[in-house]
Amino acid sequence: MTDSKYFTTTKKGEIFELKSELNNDKKEKKKEAVKKVIASMTVGKDVSALFPDVVNCMQTDNLELKKLVYLYLMNYAKSQPDMAIMAVNTFVKDCEDPNPLIRALAVRTMGCIRVDKITEYLCEPLRKCLKDEDPYVRKTAAVCVAKLYDISSGLVEDQGFLEQLKELLSDSNPMVVANAVAALSEINESSPTGQPLVELNHATINKLLTALNECTEWGQVFILDSLSNYNPKDEREAQSICERITPRLAHANAAVVLSAVKVLMKMMEILAGDTEFCGTLSKKLAPPLVTLLSSEPEVQYVALRNINLIVQKKPDILKHEMKVFFVKYNDPIYVKLEKLDIMIRLASQANIAQVLSELKEYATEVDVDFVRKAVRAIGRCAIKVEPSAERCVSTLLDLIQTKVNYVVQEAIVVIKDIFRKYPNKYESIISTLCENLDTLDEPEARASMVWIIGEYAERIDNADELLDSFLEGFADENAQVQLQLLTAVVKLFLKRPAHTQALVQHVLSLATQDSDNPDLRDRGFIYWRLLSTDPAAAKEVVLADKPLISEETDLLEPTLLDELICHISSLASVYHKPPTAFVEGRSAGIRKTLPARQGSVEEAANQEATVIPNQESLIGDLLSMDIGSAVPPAQPQAPPTSNVDLLGGGLDVLLGGPPDLGGGVAPSTTGLLGDIFGLSSAPTMHTPPKTCWLPADKGKGMEIMGTFSRRNGQITMDLSFTNKAMQAMSGFAIQFNKNSFGIAPAAPMNMGALQPGQTLEYNLPLNTNGPVQRMEPLTTLQVAVKNNVDVFYYACQVPIQVLFIEDGTLDKRVFLTTWRDIPSANEVQYTINDIKGNADSVSAKMTHNNIFTIAKRNVEGQDMLYQSLKLTNNIWVLLELKLQPGVSHATLSLKSRSVEVAPYVFQAYDAVVKNC
Amino acid sequence: MIGGLFVYNHKGEVLISRVYRDDIGRNAVDAFRVNVIHARQQVRSPVTNIARTSFFHIKRANIWIAAVTKQNVNAAMVFEFLLKIIEVMQSYFGKISEENIKNNFVLIYELLDEILDFGYPQNTDTGVLKTFITQQGIKSATKEEQAQITSQVTGQIGWRREGIKYRRNELFLDVLEYVNLLMSPQGQVLSAHVAGKVVMKSYLSGMPECKFGINDKIVMEAKGKGGLGSTSDTDQTRSGKPVVVIDDCQFHQCVKLSKFETEHSISFIPPDGEFELMRYRTTKDISLPFRVIPLVREVGRTKMEVKVVLKSNFKPSLLGQKIEVKIPTPLNTSGVQLICLKGKAKYKASENAIVWKIKRMAGMKETQLSAEIELLETDTKKKWTRPPISMNFEVPFAPSGFKVRYLKVFEPKLNYSDHDVIKWVRYIGRSGLYETRC
């Protein structure tokens, strides 16, 4: 006899029949009837009408029957609160039963019945059960406190259950401890004030760590998860927690392993100063993470989503483990796609050959999504690993030759990105691309192709015909294709005005007169007006240099990443979204952040910087940047919570990933770290003291002090942010206006929240690949800083010595010929006063600042130093320094083809010579 | 935490539904059916978010098991738990099927009540569960027995009850290894690893303490060193015995992890009966038992020639068994002519593959198969993407070089010693995903 027959009753009058069976005297009949009721309940039939009859069966010695009745009660008590009262007596009685299993069952079930009147009666039995002699009852009661808190938080606090629960943390039985921890964590997270009701302290943490060794796998997860919310009071404690948790990495349960990883990742943040300890710890993390990939596919999926985060936070951990992420033929698609993501993140010069041959293999698979992603990945490799770009491009060309429609389209989208990363390098393949014009039917691929045609219109002989062919169906195109077409035709016109006037007029009229899309109309009108009033300006705007795209456009925003690291193994880490994005109400909990590593402030009050008062003065520039960059909306999707929107088109620059700073150290923190722990070998180059760039009264409470420095060839903007307002500031982003030397942030700003009264140091790495525009004075840099309050603008002076590059030496003969070749009109003289030291010490000091002494002569008791230096934009400056021993002033002659830099070089000399 | 747990058949009909939390309503049951089960192909992740409710699902043999939550739960734990439920159900009533689930629904509800409380997983060890959740419901037990049950459910050694007695103390160790390989057509190893496990069957009296020793590199080096400088980086220790370099290992919950961390010794009190003592992974110096050398030639548009050479690469005295090579054929295959030197080969149209079976094959041997594949003319331009050639086998040794050095048993309270225990050790090497691209 089996139970499946209970599923099959479909007769009419069934309820009535059940009713009579439930009231049957025979126990067996009763049990049969209850089973039928439960079966009906499971498939969704309403059997609430039988409530009194079922409750009548509750008083029984038969545990199985009792459990079934309880199951029924939990389901229907809410809809029949008055009837549910009938059950209270039995519950209370059961809580006194000599059998611990029955006591536990009663208290467990009572907690699940959410009826006020029953809840009142729950308190007394619960209090007793929390002190029960049997651990099985205690562990059930511990969870029941969480249930009660969910029904009535006030009741739990008033009745002192929290204290009782806290006492259970020291229980002798590890499972009781684990359940108590789980209940406490839940209560803390849902506390209405956002403040935890019960704080964990050093002593309880110790107890938890002891219980960790003895309790079930699930209990270990509860304990580890709650440990991850604890902030140790000092490094020693953090270290000892790490040591006691590390053995968990060898547990067979993936949840235990991942929760242990979460705690370790957090502790490593605190212990960041102890590089040796963190290093060994990091090494221990890799093998268990790899092992997770041999678990069931669902667990693998969770592991992979988390590894994706861990690799972004600590790229070094898995850098040698590329092979384990190779896709297996029969992996489920969700595992395949995640593996691909991680492969791209781990791709580096060392393993690129292997990765590429794998990706090429994947591009011939059957699953369309997977193939597309593989093709896209090849493009991403090209952008990320520069030396491999050529091989990637040829692989993509091979794939285009396959003529598989979606492969071709995807390839064209990524090739557009490659063009933007390496301008003027691979344009020879354009003709191959043009052959596939007709097969493109997806908007993104069409838009990319149109962009390519417009961008390289001067090299494509029949660009006008090609664009013209697109225009025929202009009205039917997707909006992004229309926008691209408009821009491309205007570009074409500006490059080859001779025969394209009709075309441009046609497209402008299409865009402005026949379209309902306001974006398209606006862009059309802007172009039209530009072209009709000032074609030269139009050229400057439309054909402006585009900022290079940076390699990792899909990195998570650092603050979000840090938050997600605190949520390793949880749903948030699977979705890559903060809990607030998918959890309702108070149970979303407080926002978690990694423990901060903070620095101190240094004071300097030198009011040299100018604050740009309003935004209007910048508008012209901003506009040109926006349109000029004409980014096809093909960028990989932005992180969901990114609220950075500064200077419009600069968005992709801001979201761009950090550059590879040589050693492969996590770039987001190097600057900060170096500062705090004094790792940097004291900068040998002269760095001016910080000056106030944005006073607090102009920055709505945010004060910015800063200076520029150059260390190991890297220019950095060293900033101190002070929050003098009452509110925390967050969402920082920075952007520079075009400037004389093309200085631009090398990485988006990555700074956490700034609490009131707090000062944070931030070193922003810079490069000189940004757009160039001559400024007056030459070294002026206009900066915009955004936070959650507003956008602020200021201008500062860049000390020119940070732009002197390391390979500024000239051969003696070259120096001589160059010196002679530069006309004397380009020679400027200057006198330096207050020189300390002799020719040799001056020369040595100069070398530290990348001013190189080529030769030294002694003429009539005077020391002549011949020096050269080179600026980032390849301007050579030649100098002759005349020093007289015992005399504190010297004469400096400067020759350069761009003599306008002279005054700034003299300033630099003054600064260097006088700074000892 | 987990808000509810549903079990569906392949049509999406609910077989089991248990709600643990108030925030999960009845509509969640239908939401999953409509958005996941009926959507079939579109769902491409085991985690689905529908209207701020998250569904975790696993599907085994036409049965869907879904956990539902509205909170930010520990996702790895939910999946591990779902897998555990399957394990528990299997140990109670065998195969997971619609019929079995319907037949045992009362039992399943009882189990779900016990192993998940308010969405928090409790003790899920089948051995312990079976002591108090029986198919017939609990028999009236004496007070002592009840106390024993509860202390065991919550106990520090939750996986073993006291008072076990055997006339013959016996234990079996199976070292089971799965060799995974991905090889390029040119014979270059793209990736290879061994996923191994040690399964133990223990029939020991009392509460025996066991100590397990293997030829792990770290342990052997520490032993061989004796205070001298570190040994060189070879796979031989001073004593000349081969060692295995274990990349990572995981243990059953009975193993004292902290002791493993500090002393690198594997000590434990085993559960009674069969369990998985450890799992490990190695990537270095794997001896690959078989090598497949493919040669594919496309002769025009309607013919293909395939030659596959199979080499066995282990001691000639050993025998490989259950050898099966699966050679994929194009979808438009119309006929296949086969010649093989050893075993039987057949073209299976339903699998789009040639299946070549060899019952036994000794080490250091070589054999081959040639096939002529006739193709239908098709107008699809799309090239056939050649899936890799896969193979299955079983060999009587551990391809990683893993060796059991000892397993000592101490039972201080009972009067039997390590020598009285009869011990059996067996090594089996099987194919995992053993593929050669062609």
UniProtKB/TrEMBL annotation, chain A:
Pfam families in the record: Adaptin_N (PF01602), Alpha_adaptinC2 (PF02883), B2-adapt-app_C (PF09066)
Q: Which GO terms describe its biological process?
A: intracellular protein transport; vesicle-mediated transport
The primary location reported for this protein is membrane
Keywords, A to Z, come to: Membrane, Protein transport, Transport
Q: For this protein, what is any one GO molecular function term? A: clathrin binding
Residues of the Clathrin adaptor alpha/beta/gamma-adaptin appendage Ig-like subdomain domain: 686-795
From what superkingdom does this record's organism come?
A: Eukaryota
Q: Where in the cell is it found?
A: Endomembrane system
Provide the topology term for how it sits in the membrane: Peripheral membrane protein
**Domain spans labelled Beta-adaptin appendage C-terminal subdomain:** 804-914
The entry's protein name is AP complex subunit beta
The organism named in the record is Asbolus verrucosus
Automatic annotation (TrEMBL), chain B:
Q: Give the main location.
A: membrane
The record's Gene Ontology biological-process terms are:
endocytosis; intracellular protein transport
Gene3D superfamilies given in the database record: 3.30.450.60, Mu homology domain, subdomain B
Q: Which domain of life is it from?
A: Eukaryota
| KW Hydrolase (keyword) present | no
MF terms (GO), sorted A to Z = lipid binding
Regarding the membrane, this protein is recorded as: Peripheral membrane protein
GO CC: one term?
Answer: plasma membrane
Compartment list: Cell membrane; Membrane, Coated pit
Q: Which UniProt keywords apply?
A: Cell membrane, Coated pit, Endocytosis, Lipid-binding, Membrane, Protein transport, Transport
Q: Name one Pfam family in it.
A: Adap_comp_sub
Query: Which residue intervals define the domain MHD in the entry?
Result: 168-437
Q: Which residues bind a 1,2-diacyl-sn-glycero-3-phospho-(1D-myo-inositol-3,4,5-trisphosphate)?
A: 344, 346, 348, 357, 359
> What does the similarity note say?
Belongs to the adaptor complexes medium subunit family.
Q: What is this protein called?
A: AP-2 complex subunit mu
Origin organism of this chain? Answer: Asbolus verrucosus
Q: What is the lineage of its organism?
A: Eukaryota, Metazoa, Ecdysozoa, Arthropoda, Hexapoda
